[in-house]
Amino acid sequence: MNILLTSVGRRGYLVKYFKEALGPNGKVFGGDNSPHSPAFAYCDGTAILPEVNKDHYVQSLLEICRDNAIDIVIPLIDPELEVLATCQQQFSDAGVLLLVSPPETIQMGSDKYQTHQFAIANGLATPQTFIDIAVALDQLTVGALNWPVMVKPRKGSASVDIMICHDKLQLEAAFESVTEPMIQEILDGTEYGYDLFGDQDFRPVSVYCKEKLAMRAGETDKAVSTADPVLIEFGHKLLKSMKLLGPADVDVILTKEGPALLEINPRFGGGYPCSHMAGADFCKKVIALRNGQPLVPDIGSCPDGVCMLKQDEIIQPDWPLS
User: Fold this and answer.
1) CB 62 within 8 A of CB 79
2) Which residues on neighbouring strands pair with residue 223, listed in sequence order?
3) pLDDT score of 252
4) Phi, psi of 116, deg, nearest 5
5) How confident is the model at residue 159 (pLDDT cuts 50, 70, 90)?
6) Is the dihedral of CA 141, 143, 149, 155 positive or negative?
7) Beta bridge partners of 196
8) Does one domain contain both 75 and 172?
9) 216, 181: one domain
10) Domain-located, residue 109
11) Is the pTM of this model over 0.90?
């Protein structure tokens, strides 16, 4: 079996996890639009992809799959998900499992206001969120919403363009400067991340959770796993409410009242290594999906206290860089 991780970038750890899961029975390929991808150092084969916004991106990806007998394609960044979510049939016809959830799931996860609406519709706690500044100001005036508040792009990533506002002048300036802005309540609590997994029929398979100890560039840098039943139950309820194929990275904040949903990213997230070390092994589950094997749910098996710490690694490339 051959697996292709696209936009593999700095995710050498994920290449290694899939190689361990495959053993001698397959290869892991890496694709990226840059020949300077550090993760290429661990791949059995590499491919330079066009940028995801190019018209020939999907066709190029299909050609790479044919040329390398790829069985599974796993996209790792959000812009790819939006492009590929409508292309499932093309890859299926080519005999390739494209590990992307349905378009409605991808759209909901890519738009943080739609994520908020999804939470409300499914009885999941979530911060107050507004796309109309006048409505937000009214709520602030009557005390239904408190300063400070957060302004961020509805379709942002990596914590880019997030601004904390303490008064009306700051809020108006931030709202004008952000593309497709929304205003969100800032809740007092501790941030946690989930790694969730759904099978080919969108049934819940795994709920792993970790406390975020440190972030870097919007990605979890240090974390420790938790078996808190309140958090596990919230993650299970969320997973049952969505159509998820494969992995999702989810952010919540645990307040005095319980967990509240912040974001959903239907893909492998930067904090996944913590869950992997805690026993999640989504890589073997992906391979089982491709083999048509049923997955046995392991919800409730996330242990307490497994710690993940990231560090930089220096690589001297021995592959062509042009």
Assistant:
1) no
2) 212, 308
3) 98
4) -60, -45
5) low
6) negative
7) 207, 248
8) no
9) no
10) no
11) yes
Query: What distance in Å separates the CA atoms of residue 216 and residue 201, rounded to the nearest whole number?
Result: 35
DSSP code string of 268-303: --TTHHHHHHTT--HHHHHHHHHTTPPPPP-TT-PP
List of residues 6+ apart from 27 with CB closer than 8 A: 2, 3, 44, 45
Q: What is the pLDDT of residue 321?
A: 67
Residue 143's domain comprises: 128-185
- For residue 286, give both structure tokens: 């992906």
**Angle between helix 103-110 and helix 112-121 axes, rounded to 10 deg:** 110
Residues 305 and 195 in one domain: yes
Interaxial angle between packed helices 168-177 and 133-142, expressed in degrees from 0 to 180 and rounded to the nearest 10: 160
Phi, psi of 18 (to 5 degrees): -70, -35
Strands 129-130 vs 181-185: parallel, antiparallel or unpaired: antiparallel
- Are 205 and 163 in a shared domain? no
C-alpha of 227 from chain center: 21
Whichever domain contains 140, its CATH number is 3.30.1490.20
* pLDDT tens-place string over residues 204-250: 999 999 999 998 888 899 999 999 999 999 999 999 999 999 999 99
Total domains in the fold of the chain: 3
> Do β-strands 97-98 and 129-130 pair in parallel, antiparallel, or remain unpaired?
unpaired
Burial 263-299 (b: 16+ CB within 10 A, else e): bbbbbbbbbbbbbbbbebbbbbbbbbbeeeeebeebb
Mean pLDDT for the stretch of residues 13-35: 96
Whether residue 170 is contained in a domain is answered as yes
With cut-offs at 50, 70 and 90, classify the pLDDT of residue 25.
confident
Tell me if 195 sits within 8 A of 272, measured CB to CB: yes
Query: Which candidate, 188, 166, 185, places its Cα nearest to that of 128?
Result: 185
For residue 131, give the DSSP letter: S
Residues 134, 234, single domain; the answer is no
Rounded to 5 degrees, what are φ and ψ at 144? -80, -15
Strand arrangement of the beta sheet that strand 163-165 belongs to? 129-130, 181-185, 149-153, 163-165
- What pLDDT is recorded for position 317? 87
